[in-house]
Design a protein that fits this description.
Layout lengths: L9 H10 L3 H8 L2 H9 L11 H14 L3 E5 L5 H13 L3 E5 L7 H6 L3 H4 L2 E4 L3 H10 L4 E6 L5 H11 L3 E9 L5 H13 L4 E2 L24 E4 L4 E3 L4 E7 L5 E8 L5 E12 L10 E11 L5 E11 L8 E12 L6 E3 L4 E2 L1
Parallel strand pairs: 1-2, 1-4, 2-3, 4-5
Antiparallel strand pairs: 5-7, 6-7, 8-15, 9-14, 10-13, 10-16, 11-12, 11-14
Helix pairs in contact: 3-4, 4-5, 8-9, 9-10
This protein binds S-adenosylmethionine.
Length: 350
């Protein structure tokens, strides 16, 4: 197994962290000696990674630049790329790596057990699929600064992975989607970007070629990656957005608290569902569901803390030891059909 190696000098670390994951930062890295060293090292190592040497090196670089607290890899395969990601985390001594694969039970654990402790301790492998994992992550508020999307490459599944991952990515986080030379991931990225204009591709718009099998350009030469950068704010428009069904305490809710970035004029709509489910399977009571809706007109230029009150407070009658769940849904309809409303922070219930 590869010995522990540090590829980046303190000067490299300072320079590339400053440049970040930007076209200029990636171009500077591509022409640097540190890139050449990484590409040489990962030329045929780890043998079980399905990625090219440049792709391995790029993921390594992203981790070093971003210093993520938490990274998710969707699609572990044989944990080859997992090792590259874990090594990058060791280089900066930071972060934990979740990796998931529904077909990896009994295969991945022995691979990880053969790793040195300092590498293995970074990794949390779960033999589950992205739907189960991401729904738990969302309800448990587990967020990721970087998500490597490399699971099922059929369009519908790749699009699901992008959409559901966008619920658990941190603000200013990054997605790296692999195999965008294939039609599934390619069209999934295209659809995701069309529906989420607040997200930015690292480098270029998708090719406008009329050939349906033409995959368009990649964001990093030598890879089949599209790199998508998450917005640093929450954006609200006329399509209602759910902030997820999350477990909560059985306490009343009477308003939503928001922190607005300078806003266009329009109306904010808020809806909350509270649900309570018996924990005991022999308890046949029907789950309880109650809801309330509120709205608030926001004048142009409003910013800072804002409250959307509900006409009455909402509290479930079910016992406190049931599973209590709360779901908040928001929408913003601008007066003149104009821009979305931006939130500086995730909204909260009070
Ligand atoms: C292209 S391979 C991953 C390669 C690996 N990331 C690497 O770089 O070596 C795709 C993996 O995704 C897994 N997979 C398939 N469906 C999945 C799903 N719904 N959620 C998570 N992983 C999935 C497959 O079992 C397979 O091992």
């Amino acid at each position: 197994m590869l010995q522990d190696v540090k590829f980046y000098s303190p000067e490299d670390l300072a320079k590339f962290s400053e440049l970040g994951i930007t076209p200029a930062g990636i171009d500077a890295w591509l022409s640097s000696p540190v890139h050449d060293r990484l590409v040489r090292t990962f030329d045929s190592y780890p043998p079980r990674s399905l990625l090219s040497n440049t792709a391995r090196a790029f993921l390594y670089h992203c981790i070093v630049c971003k210093r993520p607290r938490r990274v998710l890899e969707i699609g572990t395969y044989r944990a080859g790329t997992t090792e590259v990601l874990a090594r990058a985390m060791n280089e900066i001594d930071c972060g934990e790596l979740y990796t998931i694969d529904p077909y990896g039970d009994g295969i991945i654990q022995p691979i990880l057990e053969a790793w040195p402790e300092n590498l293995r301790s970074r990794v949390r492998f779960q033999p589950t699929d992205s739907m189960i994992f991401l729904s738990y992550a969302f309800s448990d508020k587990l967020t990721f600064d970087m998500i490597f999307i490399d699971g099922n490459h059929d369009y519908e599944f790749a699009l699901f992975d992008l959409l559901a991952s966008s619920l658990v990515v941190s603000r200013s986080g990054v997605f790296v989607a692999d195999n965008t030379d294939q039609v599934g991931p390619h069209y999934a990225v295209k659809k995701f970007l069309a529906d989420h204009p607040e997200w930015r591709p690292l480098r270029r718009e998708i090719s406008s070629s009329k050939d349906p099998f033409h995959a368009g350009g990649f964001d990093v030469a030598g890879t089949t990656f599209r790199v998508l950068l998450a917005p640093d704010k929450f954006s609200l428009g006329p399509r209602p957005i759910s902030f997820g069904a999350r477990r909560c305490q059985a306490i009343p809710v009477s308003s939503v608290q928001l922190d607005l970035e300078s806003s266009p004029s329009g109306t904010l709509y808020a809806k909350v569902y509270r649900r309570a489910f018996p924990k005991d399977v022999s308890d046949h009571s029907h789950p309880e569901e109650i809801k309330v809706t509120g709205s608030l007109h926001v004048p142009r230029g409003s910013c800072g803390k804002t409250t959307v009150p509900f006409p009455h407070s909402l509290v479930c009658k079910s016992p406190a030891d049931y599973w209590h769940v709360s779901e908040l849904i928001l929408a913003f309809v601008p007066d003149d059909g104009g821009q979305n409303l931006l939130l500086r922070d995730e909204p909260s219930l009070a």
